[in-house]
Amino acid sequence: MSNWKRVLLIITGGIAAYKSLELIRDLQRRKIAVRCILTRAGAEFVTPMALAALSGDKVYQDIFSLTDESEMGHIELSRDADLIVVAPATANIIAKMRAGIADDLASTTLLATGKPVVIAPAMNVRMWEHAATQENIGVLKDRGISLIGPNEGDMACNEFGMGRMAEPSKIVEEITTFFSVRAGDTTPRLGARNGVLSGRRAVVTSGPTHEAVDPVRYLANHSSGRQGHAIAAALASLGAETILVAGPTQQPDPAGVTVKNVQSAVEMMAACQAELPADIVICAAAVADWRVANPPQEKIKKERGKNGNKTSAPPVLQLEENPDILASISTLKTERPALVVGFAAETNSVIEHAKSKRISKGCDWIVANDVSPGTGTFGGGHNTVHVIDGDGVEDWPVMSKEKIGFRLAERIAQYLETFS
Ligand code: C5P
Question: Model pTM greater than 0.70?
Answer without folding.
Answer: no
